[in-house]
Amino acid sequence: MLSLLALTFIGCGEDTATAVEEPPVEIVPKNKVAVPKFDKDSAYSFIEKQVAFGPRVPNTPEHQAAKAWLVDQLKGFGAAVIEQDFQAEAYTGTMLNGTNIIGQYNPSAKKRVLLAAHWDSRHVTDHDEDENRRNEPVMGADDGASGVGVLLEIARQLQVNPIEMGVDIIFFDLEDYGDGGANAKHTTWCLGSQHWSRNFHKPNYKAKYGILLDMVGGKNARFAKEQVSVAFAPHVVNKVWKLAQSMGYGNFFVNDNGRQLTDDHLFVNQIAKIPMIDIINLPLGSETGFMPHWHTTHDDMEGIDKRTLKAVGQVVLASVYREANGEF
Ligand code: AHN
Ligand code: ZN
């Protein structure tokens, strides 16, 4: 900055005094990187690809095939990938084989942020309007694949536009095998994030904060401020929502309070003690509080809107790069 202001005075007499300014140089500190443009078509194609495997229900070949693809994608985008295999007992008594997929950027950097989404899809469409179809698996275009698709595009951008800050992209497994019954225990959900929160992929793992994406692909999405996020990470909620509004995405990131939800961020907050927010679509006027396609046979590509992917992707990308630049 100083060099821009430095003036050299030549001469001494009042009428001969001339200020010679050095040519302006754009000062971009070597560790600052401009926020890249989030490619919504790229994110959309990552969602299509996941859906093409079929429902990613634990203990199925589709789940295994999708996992191999996700690991390959993250590796291809330059992340150091850890597959955290674990087993957990479902509320049904079934033993589930899970894998949390962790893609690390700058694994040894001290300053880190955590980005996450769940990659599994639900075993049953228990909210389908047709009661004869409620035992079918969920396709999970929005519920699962959308958040992962946005994060894969962010991974791709991190390779093309590297930063020095650490970023961990975690695809949690076994989020959606929970008990949908009226008096169900909330701990039957989010088995992958519960496992990770008790068993970090690295001892003494630390992150400044986390951002969870869940159901971020729906048309006219409304990202109200979810109340677990507000309780555990109010500063992160406020920063992200303010930034979104300043970027022109205030129609998505509304200044309303949403409900409090059991989602992966709850366990990361409570067990891992990392402040984490949830960006999740909480539309008004639906029976469940989620999109009408939630946990039905209709959660397919038809419900995915690229404008929503762009809003979420660009806001999260800007949050990450601003944090890396010390501007957040
Ligand atoms: C419950 O329905 C308990 N929590 C919402 C978390 C969720 C399910 N997200 C996607 N599917
Ligand atoms: Zn779900």
Determine the strand fraction and express it as a percent band: 15-25%
User: What coarse outline follows from CA principal-axis ratios?
Assistant: globular
Radius of gyration: 22 Å
- Looking at the structure, the CATH topology is Aminopeptidase
Determine the mean pLDDT. 93
The tally of structural domains comes to 1
Q: What would you give as the CATH superfamily? A: Zn peptidases
Which consecutive residue ranges, at least 5 long each, have pLDDT under 50?
1-16
Counted beta strands: 8
Q: State the CATH architecture.
A: 3-Layer(aba) Sandwich
Structural class label: alpha/beta
Bin the helical content.
Answer: 25-40%
Bound molecules: N-[2-(1H-imidazol-4-yl)ethyl]acetamide, zinc ion
Major β-sheet, in short?
Answer: 6 strands, mixed
End-to-end C-alpha gap: 20 Å
Quick synopsis:
The protein is an alpha/beta fold and 328 residues long. The protein has helices at 2-5, 40-52, 61-76, 141-160, 191-198, 227-232, 234-246, 264-272, 306-324; strands spanning 7-10, 18-21, 80-89, 95-105, 112-118, 166-172, 209-214, 276-280. The protein has one domain: Zn peptidases (Aminopeptidase).
Explain what you see.
The chain is an alpha/beta fold. The protein has a single domain, classed as 3-Layer(aba) Sandwich (Aminopeptidase), CATH 3.40.630. The chain is built from nine helices and eight strands. The strands form two sheets. Strands 3-4-6-5-7-8 form a six-stranded mixed beta sheet, with helices on both faces. The radius of gyration is 22 Å and the shape is globular. The two termini are 20 Å apart. Bound molecules: N-[2-(1H-imidazol-4-yl)ethyl]acetamide (AHN) and zinc ion.
